[in-house]
Amino acid sequence: MLAYIVRRLLYAIPILIGVNLITFALFFVVNTPDDMARMQLGVKRVTPEAIEKWKAERGYDKPLFVNADAAGLATVTDTIFFDKSARMFAGQFGRAEDGRDIAREIASRMGPSLAIALPTFVLGLFVAVSMALLLAFFRASAFDFWGVVLCVAMMSISGLFYIIGGQYLISKIWRLVPISGFGDGLEAWRFLILPVLIGVVSGIGSSTRWYRTIFLEEVGKDYVRTARAKGLPETVVFFRHILRNALIPILTGVVVVIPLLFMGSLLTESFFGIPGLGSYTIDAINAQDFAVVRSMVFIGSVLYIVGLILTDISYTLVDPRIRFE
Fold it and tell me: Within 10 Å of residue 9's Cβ, how many Cβ atoms?
């Protein structure tokens, strides 16, 4: 197991380097520092002197990959790539356009993002799996038919409808919770109830259909027929055998949302005024703060690779036949 984990970590290094290079090319080759200066200065007829001054103040006046004017190791380190991209491997994200330290902002905003994402993820997974098990248990019945119809209807509705409708009905009409904002300590729960509820409801339709398909595929397998032939009750067959054997595809789907647990939901945090990483990314995009956007893209790729490794490791816990030599 340890050797497998080490190998996966080593495989992750070239992947991260590739993602870093692609991100760098998108930000500095396709969109040159001169273009970034013109967008930030916001002047139609900006002078070349103003562009050069802006680039010098932010370290964009250096060569991209190789500094031929430098000597020794500085030919590589005194470049835009090393200063703006390679340093992120050491957790040095630099400063945003407004001068604030990006690493400090990420650390302070991770808490609110997790406060929304973790309950939404856990409750959503529990509700979706439970509903999918019920639909599969009563398969080919009226309950199953109308349940699938409801799931299709829910997944066909835009997430913005749930957000705006929830804010209007629950906050403005019923006045049960605040429309937006965030509090400190225990006071924060009043601001989290509505975003978590909307996050769970908006994801039930697609998740339930996906898990129902997985359970129905397991129903027709040999081990299920064997369990029934032994006289086991249908509830035991479903909740002890089918659910356990369906955990591998469930875990595979769960890994997709792991980066979102830390990076937050872009729409939810923006509409509810939650000071998390999702709203931080949206604000950076609106402000054309490329340093913040690059950092968030890099963190997202790291978290996704970590999620893939954790998923492979969790396979051994749910399926004893899997062993990594």
Answer: 12
CA angle 255–256–259, rounded 5-degree value: 90
Written as six digits, the tokens of 321 are 């036949």
DSSP state of 87: G
Residue 322 and residue 14 in contact, taking contact as beta carbons nearer than 8 Å: no
Return the domain boundaries, the chain: 2-90, 106-318
Return the CATH number of the domain spanning residue range 106-318: 1.10.3720.10
| Residue 19 predicted with pLDDT over 90 | no
CB neighbours of 139 closer than 8 A, spacing ≥ 6? 216, 219
**Average pLDDT along the chain:** 86
Q: Measure the CA angle with vertex 316, ends 313 and 318; round to 5°.
A: 115
pLDDT tens per residue across span 238-261: 888 898 888 888 877 777 677 667
Neighbours of 133 (CB within 10 A): 20
